[in-house]
Amino acid sequence: MIDFTKLNYLKIGNEKQRIIYEVLTKYKIFDILKKYSPILAGTIPIEIDIEESDLDIICEVKDKVEFEKFLIQAFKDFDLKIEILKINNEKSLVCNFKLEEFPIEIFGQNKPTTQQNAYLHMIAEYKILQEKGEEFKQKIIDLKKQGMKTEHAFGMLLHLENPYEDLLKF
Fold first, then answer.
1. 121-152: pLDDT as tens digits
2. pLDDT above 70: percentage of residues in the chain
3. For the residues of 111-151, what is the DSSP string, one character each?
């Protein structure tokens, strides 16, 4: 299985992944976020992204106020939008900005990145895609192009009652 905790797989991925690797490396995004154990999660690593998909970078954040100050300083040259939200009953920090042509979403939660739902869902979805094959993958992409969220697309095709919870069982 691919080690999604490192970015190396992007170097040998599809064209978009290779470009993303170059952009993230050029701006040293993962070096800047290193102490927060960043992982690129979401649809781009598992190649089910659509044109408007953003780069979801998850981070382990113990102090949201300190992290917000850090982001404002580290990315001061970008037009940041930062919010503190409650997601899955947990306070989470979400920071959005644009890096070249790519929308970036940095997501911080007080939980190791490999235990966050974004990572766990991605791993489950990756395993399902490996098992189900290219036709299934294309159906997911088609549903996403129609506006469906990733987990809902998997839920519909796999007949899951609660895709957000049920995907974690794979």
1. 999 999 999 999 999 999 999 999 999 999 99
2. 100
3. S-GGGSHHHHHHHHHHHHHHHH-HHHHHHHHHHHHTT--HH
* Single-letter amino acid, residue 12: I
Band of pLDDT at residue 89, cut at 50, 70 and 90: confident
Least Cα distance to 55 among 111, 10, 116, 109 occurs for 10
Pairing of the two strands 102-109 and 39-41? unpaired
Tokens representing 111? Answer: 């939980």
Class (C level, CATH) for 8-169:
alpha beta
Residues 110-122: what's their mean pLDDT? 96
Question: Domain ranges in the chain?
Answer: 8-169
Residues whose CB falls within 8 Å of the CB of residue 64, separated by 6 or more in sequence, listed in order = 84, 91, 93, 108, 110
